[in-house]
Automatic annotation (TrEMBL):
Name this protein carries in UniProt: Histidine kinase
InterPro entries (alphabetical): 2TM_dom, Bact_2-comp_sensor_kinase, Sig_transdc_His_kin_internal
Domain 2TM: 358-432
Domain Signal transduction histidine kinase internal region: 159-237
GO molecular function terms noted in the UniProt entry: phosphorelay sensor kinase activity
GO cellular component: membrane
Residue stretches spanning the membrane: 35-54, 74-94, 114-132, 370-390, 396-419
Keyword field contains Kinase: yes
Keywords carried by this UniProt record: Kinase, Membrane, Transferase, Transmembrane, Transmembrane helix
Length: 440
């Protein structure tokens, strides 16, 4: 037992012993005072420590965050059975051993049933408070842990995305300089023209690389300009065919995706006037396809694979739609998902988190309502029992509110801890699945 809990139970024992000694004890002697302290300490430590140990044990074996329904059922069964045993033990020690007010036979014949029932309700009140406190602490820890995890995930995703975008600058510049160096030897005049055009294109790279998505129209315009530069160098050895639907122009792709794929086509394939490299850019369903006839060039140095890998990873961070790659003996094709709207990753995650938070908030309200109901039951029913026994002991009426409220409390617990909701949720899923099946 923790020192803090031990001190708390000592103070509770002292307070209750002082109350019972000065209010209910006729002979105020030192012997009676010590007896009252001993009895109060017994009740405090046996019931308080017993329920505390049960709660701690269940927290370790069945945490609220991992098995809420299972934990609730086990908690109800364990606290009911444990408190009945502990209360009967405490009352037996009090009335039979300490006070010697009854014999063992008299105690178990039913003479002390009302007192036992009253004490059981008090014990259940203590236990309900401990379990509710444990649940709220567990919920608080879980919420903090989830917030930290989500922040780490968001930071990691942002860092990864920034890293991917920062690859574009040196990658584009390196490849463009390679083309320029080739043109300087082959055609100096074309090299000058290429330099002027490259500055225009590089400006687009600088403007667009920090964006998550750009319109298909902007990307196509840039790709066409870039194709003109490639045409300047390769002339009739390379041919470009654009066949993108007009309705796809206002949709979105990741920036510089076409430029990176065009680079790959040139880099990995040979192109001659007798065997030209034909690159097609066209729409297909909800994708933008970049296809070239396969004329594999022998590579002295193995490719780093930055271009295609960069595109795949950026799409993975922005959407659940995949980049598809098709390769045969005759052609190589990459299918880029075309998005109807800009999917903001942070917004999507935030919406999911908001929905999860709303569900968790609703769940907490339901649980707080149940525990409030349980605590009220444990307070009011014992009060009604005492009132009934004091005012009209021969006319026992407290059974009716105790039974009626108890049935309502059990029903409330069943609904809160999903004993009845699982069937309802299962039925809803079945209906939705049938509706989706008929739609398809």
């Amino acid at each position: 037992m923790k020192r803090k809990n031990f001190i708390t139970l000592c103070w509770i024992s002292l307070a209750t012993s002082m109350f019972f000694f000065f209010v209910f004890t006729d002979e105020k002697t030192l012997e009676n005072f010590m007896l009252t302290i001993a009895i109060s300490s017994m009740y405090s430590f046996v019931l308080g420590a017993g329920n505390g140990l049960i709660n701690d044990f269940l927290n370790k074996k069945f945490p609220w965050s991992e098995a809420t329904t299972k934990r609730a059922v086990i908690s109800i069964v364990s606290i009911l059975s444990a408190n009945i045993i502990l209360v009967y033990f405490c009352n037996y020690m009090n009335f039979v051993v300490f006070q010697k007010a009854a014999t063992t036979e008299e105690y178990f014949t039913g003479k002390y049933n009302y007192i036992n029932w009253f004490t059981i309700n008090i014990a259940l009140l203590i236990s309900a408070f401990l379990h509710a406190k444990g649940f709220m602490e567990e919920l608080k820890k879980t919420s903090k842990k989830e917030v930290v995890e989500q922040k780490l995930i968001a930071k990691s995703a942002n860092a990864q995305f920034e890293s991917l975008k920062n690859q574009l600058d040196p990658h584009f510049l390196f490849n463009s300089l390679n083309v320029l160096s080739s043109l300087i030897d082959e055609n100096p005049r074309q090299a000058q023209k290429f330099t002027a055009s490259m500055s225009k294109i590089y400006r687009y790279v600088l403007e667009q690389k920090d964006k998550e998505l750009v319109t298909v129209e902007d990307e196509l315009e840039f790709a066409k300009t870039y194709c003109e530069l490639l045409k300047t160098r390769f002339e009739d050895s390379v041919d470009f065919i654009f066949d993108v639907k007009k309705e796809d122009y206002r949709r979105f792709v990741v920036p510089l995706s076409l430029q990176l794929l065009l680079e790959n086509c040139i880099k990995h394939n040979f192109a001659t006037s007798s065997k030209p490299l034909i690159i097609k850019i066209y729409s297909e369903n909800d994708t933008l396809c970049i296809e070239n006839n396969l004329q594999v060039r022998e590579q002295i140095k193995e490719s780093s694979g930055i271009g295609l890998a960069n595109i795949v990873q950026r799409y993975a961070l922005l959407t659940k739609k995949n980049v598809f790659i098709e390769k045969s003996e005759d052609y190589f094709k990459v299918k880029l998902p075309v998005l109807s709207a800009k999917p903001n990753v942070v917004t999507e995650k935030t919406n999911d988190e908001d929905q999860a938070y709303e569900r968790a908030q609703k769940r907490v309200k339901e649980l707080k309502s149940f525990y409030g109901n349980l605590i009220s039951y444990c307070i009011i029913i014992p009060f009604l029992i005492i009132l009934n026994l004091i005012t009209s002991p021969r006319n026992i009426w407290f059974y009716w509110p105790m039974l009626g409220w108890g049935i309502g409390l059990v029903a409330h617990g069943m609904s809160v801890f999903a004993i009845g909701k699982s069937w309802e949720e299962k039925k809803i899923r079945e209906i939705l699945e049938k509706q989706n099946h008929f739609k398809n």
